Every structure is written in C-alpha cells, then in structure tokens.
Amino acid sequence: MRDVSAKVSSLRTAVATATLRASAETVAVVREGRAPKGDPLPVARTAAILAAKNTPNLVPYCHHVALDLVDVSFAFGTDAIVARVRVVAIHRTGVEMEALTGPPSPP
Fold first, then answer.
1. What is the CATH number of domain 10-101?
2. Number of H helices, E strands in the chain
3. Where are the alpha helices (DSSP H) in 1-107?
4. Nearest CA-CA partner of 43 in 33, 57, 56, 58
C-alpha cells in the first residue's frame, strides 16, 4: 500500500464498464423484465455497489475510501448488456479500482 498521507484530498471520479454478451432472446427477457425468477438488474446493481464499497477487502493494496457515490446503469444492445459503474469520492487517492470492481466480470 502506498503512503498517501502527504496528498491533498480532491474530487476523484472513475468510470468502468463491462459488456455481457448473451443471446438476443436472453437480452430481451432481461430488458422486458420477463425473467422467470424476477428482474436481475436490481440484484446486479446492488452487487456492483457492494463490490465497489468492499474493494479494499477484495483487492490487495487498496485504501479504504469513503465513497460519495456509486452509480450503476445498464444499456441494452441486441445481444449484449453493458453495465456502467461511476464512482465519486473526495479523498487523497483515486477510485479507479472501486469502479473496476463494480461491474460484473464477463466469463
């Protein structure tokens, strides 16, 4: 872990995206909220927020950062869903790893 104690706190933002490829039929089911076990997007949004908030527990050498915002959005293509996570904090170190930890990883 790096010593950031001499740095001045400033506005830090980072954005990360993940593209989840699936059949057009599967993407349509998710977009239209017809999944048999319920809408997966609220669960994915919650998981992304929890992952971003727990980055120091998941990624070695990451500082604990009090996040001011974790914004999760989804965009739909014909055969893909793009998850976008934007993280904002006022801190002495960046929030890139928190943003990268948020989106689901493709297989």
1. 3.30.70.640
2. 4, 3
3. 24-31, 40-53, 55-58, 96-101
4. 33
pLDDT tens digit sequence for 13-44 = 999 999 999 999 999 999 999 999 999 999 99
What are the sequence ranges of the domains in the chain? 10-101
Residue range 47-68, pLDDT digits in tens = 999 999 999 999 999 999 999 9
- Ramachandran angles phi, psi of 19, nearest 5°: -105, 120
Residue of 36, 34, 25 whose CA lies nearest to 78: 25
Distance CA 53, CA 72 (A): 13
Q: Which residue from 36, 1, 22, 25 is spatially nearest to 104, judged by alpha carbons?
A: 22
